Amino acid sequence: MPTTPSPEAIGRHPHLGDLCPQGWIRVDFHSHTMWSGDSTTTPDEIRESVAETGIDVLCVTDHNAIKGAIELNDNLPCRVVVGEELKTHAGEIIGLFLKERIPQGIRPEDAAKNIRDQGGLVYIPHPFDPMRNNLQAEVLDELVNNDLVDGIEILNGKTSLRSLNEKAAAYAVKHDLAIGAGSDAHVAEAIGAVYLEMPDFDGPEEFLSSMRMGRAVGHHYDPPRRWRPRIVPSTAD
Questions:
Q1: How far is residue 215's CA from residue 192's CA, in Å, rounded to a whole number?
Q2: Which residues of 76-85 are buried (b: 16+ CB within 10 A; e: fewer)?
């Protein structure tokens, strides 16, 4: 009986699923670099991983920083969305398409308004994962009720329980939110483990519309940081 060859057998990276429809792209909504503080992934390692996985767009969402995303913007074999995963007093929020860094520790509603003022999108990562710094449920509800959320992460590569991702997907449907999916990569090997297939876009407005037509692809993938000799450049301003 014939069998379907594995991605490795046909020369494709194991993170990648079926080929995208024509005019569609693969977007990893959530990734971290050495600018995050809890990741040592260097620009060279990111370039290598992006080239291997074939990701078309990488949202670089470092913790409380956008400098790495800006520096990588013209230096990867894919498009880069400048983002930031910022810590509020009630959990984390991601801003996409940012022009300026947003300070951590501010109120969630102020963070969302700051993102919107920059022309960016308010994206909620790992919304129901108690093992992460997820946004408190009542605060998420308040932001949604005040129309301050654009999209929600329905598949996160570091969330090990499928039920938590399913809960996020159900929440998106209930509240008519756009969907996103990201590897939450803190090591280079995890980039592209989770992504959203969606129509191509030009700018934040089209990006948001494409999210609504997208489909999440990927799997839980949270490997330990592999030791290798490296020189991590300074991330100080």
A1: 14
A2: bebbbbbbbb
Distance CA 125, CA 192 (A): 16
CB neighbours of residue 131 within 10 Å: 11
Other C-beta atoms closer than 10 Å to the C-beta of 196 total: 29
pLDDT in tens, 175-193: 999 999 999 999 999 999 9
The predicted-structure confidence for 110-155, as pLDDT tens digits, reads as follows 999 999 999 999 999 999 999 999 999 999 999 999 999 999 999 9
Task: Place domain 23-217 in its CATH homologous superfamily.
Answer: Metal-dependent hydrolases (3.20.20.140)
DSSP class per residue in 171-217: HHHHHT-EEEEE--BSSGGGTTSEEEEEE--SSHHHHHHHHTT-EEE
Own/partner contacts of 102-108, CB < 8 Å, gap of 24 or more, are 103/64, 104/64, 108/135, 108/139, 108/142, 108/143
Pair 142, 112: CB distance under 8 Å? no
What residues does each domain of the chain span? 23-217
Distance between CA 32 and CA 190 in Å, rounded? 10
pTM for this predicted structure? 0.90
